[in-house]
């Protein structure tokens, strides 16, 4: 059995089950279903043939021919990406997943990466010594194409889900495609994005989209065809002038025709016209229990508790002590003070803004929910030296608070419990997501919201700086659109002091999950309000954004000569000019929310 065969067939079964569940209650349009199947079968045949040509070319040592065959294969995959990512996400990871081990923390296992991104590492540059491994990866990729074919064959395609998949694919182009997230070495990002858009255009044509919408596609695709330099590409203009209008036009046409939206709850509101709409994200997606959904009553209780010093064991500290609203919910210290005030905790206090829109909490990602985070902090002897039980006991002595909690939590018994305390505070934190920065207004059409320097900085952020491949828009943290299903961590090789080639000793995620891949790994935090949240990094050693950018420009710890085999940040220098660094800082200033 080939190396990845068992994973492929598990992926087929799981993807087929997801597809059956998602489509089971939707109307069956046999004509549309047949047309989609024919389109997909033709493009799957094309991808399979391209993979065969790539394998044949790999029998020689012509690097130019290999790269050309690989580029053809990637483009043919991009025609199918809308389907693969939506209907067969497990198989999609085998076809085009990141070239890093997939970490399963619960199972304490790491699966070897596979697919086009892995193949790319063998070809740019090409090393003849790795040819056997290259051919092995191509064969594995071909097997994954077979798995995708099986999913397609057993899927019933309806208008609602196909339209949803198409809109999400355009959002994927906005966030991942044009940034080069999945093609960092070959530089094909813009070209491949036009292929993705062309595929979505084809599907809209099958859904009888009007000529005006198809012309909007043509205009966006034409801009992509004109550019070959990702470093000089106008990302801001492309998104605001073409991609946002495109998804708006798609949504307008679809609703005007009275066509159905999918019924499933997803991370994005179903009527979202762009990724930058006000309240575009569905907070329920980031909550594990319906009881924890924030309501005005829960949020008001949580806000009051957040600032109350009675939460602490000594009655002298609140959540606000380390997460001060005037400092974007940080405290301005390298590491926060312990409750005694005589020593420091291990790490820097991160902002609470947008914390509810990630799937793991703390720098080491040890808490899966905000409720768990509240529990951890209250119990921590160095931070609050209390407990949710102790807080609930105090609250139960106040009749007015009992009454307010009963109104906020109708299913609560006669007394306030620890769970209600945790959910109240978590509800308040979940509401700390204003999305009213200059960047947001710019993306919603206010071209005066960002000046020319900030726009230049955004283009660098998306292109030459490679920032957007880890800090994904629109959240600018490690939770990537359009599915918002995982929050990522990175191994950067953070130094004890800026510019001094000595690795910080904090092992990060490895402390709680002893896997070699997780040594020095830390959650990717949001860059929203970053201009207000100095000092930076988990150790708070970086006082300015200039110091942070210099660290990335150098290539992280490895760029400073540190031996760190599991560093996930690309170790090659970015060669940013001083003016470019200042532009990046100007853009990050545009991520500060209005207070």
TrEMBL record:
It holds the Pfam family CCP_MauG. Residues 297-433, 452-592 form the Cytochrome c domain. PROSITE patterns: CYTC, PROKAR_LIPOPROTEIN. GO terms for molecular function: peroxidase activity. The keyword NADP does not apply. Its main location: other. Keywords: Heme, Iron, Metal-binding, Oxidoreductase, Peroxidase, Signal. It is found in: Cell envelope. This is Cytochrome C peroxidase. It comes from Chitinophaga hostae. The lineage of its organism: Bacteria, Pseudomonadati, Bacteroidota, Chitinophagia, Chitinophagales.
